[in-house]
Amino acid sequence: MEFRPAKAEDAGRIRELSRGIWEGHDYLGEAIEGWIAEGGVYVGIIDGRIVGLSRIRRLADDDWWLEGLRVDPAQQGRGYGRLLHRATLAELRRIARGTVRFCTADTNRSVPLAKRDGFREILRLPFLYRKYGREEHPPLAEVLARYNVREADVNESGLVDFLLEGCRESYAGLLPLGWHHRVTTRETLLRELADARILVLGKPGSITAALVATRSGEGPDLSIVLGPPEAVERRILPCLGSLAVESGWTNVGGAVPPEYSDGLLAEGFKIPDGFKNQLVFEMKIK
Fold first, then answer.
1. For the chain, what are the domain ranges?
2. Given 42, 69, 191, 210, which is the most exposed site by the fewest CB atoms within 10 A?
3. CATH number of the structural domain 127-277
4. In DSSP terms, which residues pair with 60 in a beta bridge?
């Protein structure tokens, strides 16, 4: 397999390849031109034709992220994914030092490859989603008042400290942003959650539970859910429908700690057919 950096003229072939992935809902088709412009995208070529790709993303001097590993569905079962994975790791070891992470579904073929190559699983979160249609929900202000929940700004007193501690305890020190996870720092939270919708229990400085939804595509990702499960289930989750209607969201999904799964299922969320958990792997490169 030839393994080289992607060129601008490769975008069309990559979009074509992605149409057969996730029943045509792969985000890669829309993202690939921007990815190639930013750099770090590599393609695997067999007999002159692109059969797959991967991306190495540098988040900080010693913080690296792998994403976008794809193989043309028509070419799967021929070992091309394994070749891409190994070529990507070889390039990573050549250019990187520090910590490298990636996120994938528990049924992905990359899971056994990663474990054999020295990655360790650091986070396993159930993934749930819900589609919102035309069903009616009370106005958000009314529902928040009913359950004594309020919407908060990430800059309010005590909120960042609460989220930092919760991410350390429940999210392996990471901030989940869809299928990307960033090391959780005060600066990261303030930057990434500037436009988030945040529902909380408690007054500023004494927050006891929180749900953070960050914008992604047609709806939000449930990036953070923290607090006593019973309180979250009985007070915060019943507000999600009204929040979705007010925000114009049609899809809501995310990976959350397992103690909140039952509450989300009771609110009409579902588990995807193809997988149950979102996994995050980590490896140190010296």
1. 2-96, 127-277
2. 191
3. 3.40.630.30
4. 63
For domain 2-96, which CATH number applies: 3.90.1150.10, 3.40.50.1370, 3.40.630.30, 3.40.50.720?
Answer: 3.40.630.30
Do 228 and 200 form a contact (C-beta atoms < 8 A)? no
Residue among 75, 111, 107 nearest 276 (CA)? 107
Interval 7-48: pLDDT, tens:
999 999 999 998 888 776 788 888 899 999 999 999 999 999
User: Is 237 in contact with 228 (CB distance < 8 Å)?
Assistant: no
Tell me which long-range contacts 196-200 makes (C-beta under 8 A, separation of at least 24): 196/154, 196/220, 196/223, 197/151, 197/243, 197/247, 198/151, 198/152, 198/153, 198/154, 198/159, 199/144, 199/149, 199/150, 199/151, 199/152, 199/236, 199/239, 199/243, 200/149, 200/150, 200/151, 200/152, 200/159
Count other Cβ atoms within 10 Å, centred on residue 140. Answer: 20
Tell me the CB-side half-sphere exposure of residue 130, using CA atoms within 13 A: 18
Return the axis-axis angle of helices 11-18 and 28-38, rounded to nearest 10°: 150
Segment 161-216, tens digit of pLDDT:
999 999 999 999 999 998 889 999 999 999 999 999 999 999 999 999 999 999 76
Question: Is residue 12 within 8 Å of 36, Cβ to Cβ?
Answer: no
